[in-house]
Predict the 3D structure of the following.
Amino acid sequence: MPMSGNIRSPFPGMDPYMEQGWRDVHASLMPYMRDMLQPQLPGDLRARIEENVQLDEAERAPQRRNPDVYIVETPKGHSTQPADAGIAVLDEPIILEPENDPLIERHIEITDSKGRKVITAIEVLSPWNKLEGSGKERYLRKREQYIASGANLVEVDLVRAGRWWNMVDAYYIAPENRTTYRVTVKRTGQWKLELYRAPLSQRLPTVGIPLRPHEADIKLALQPLIEQVYRNGRYDLTDYAQPCDPPLEGAEAEYAAERIRGAGLG
């Protein structure tokens, strides 16, 4: 059953407390974004959610988890078992948990109808894409590959981990434009970078998503989508009396405390 539209965050834009449940937020946001974009696309383009399973490891780069043994269907009459093989009784295994949690990295690709050419990639960044280490290095390589392939690239950054302006160090970002959150758009064939500011105190922007050079942008309205995540994920049950993780500092901490008190949640 859909949640009531009256469930609202005390913050006008991105609620920083939602970052504590980032994996759920990220997984929920992807299909909402795809469903908003899909009806706006020309008939020969489609938006699809793509994903990779990675290992969350601090010391070495995440790796794809591929099996060493595959079970495949064989034609009838070509059994690989000896004819006189007996039926063995299964022994009880010991269940082992992985030392490193698997990470599901999702993004959206707008492709032609056959999926052969990526027109636009939309990445919603996670903390491990921004913090120093193998996760960030791997993401930056992926970003370079998109740009080299001639695809447009949209980065939606709704997490406060790291300093995002260091990820676009080829461009000068004035201090007043280093907002808490941001969206950037890199269009194919252009050196310029489009920056959508997203301060903690403002609603999230509506972003122009580029397609092919002869086509008009389509629209991605982030604010109603993050509000939908908040409602359907029951983030109204957040304990706002507890410190935010990662912590807010300075003017942002004061602003958040004021919003929370004003909503009667502190």
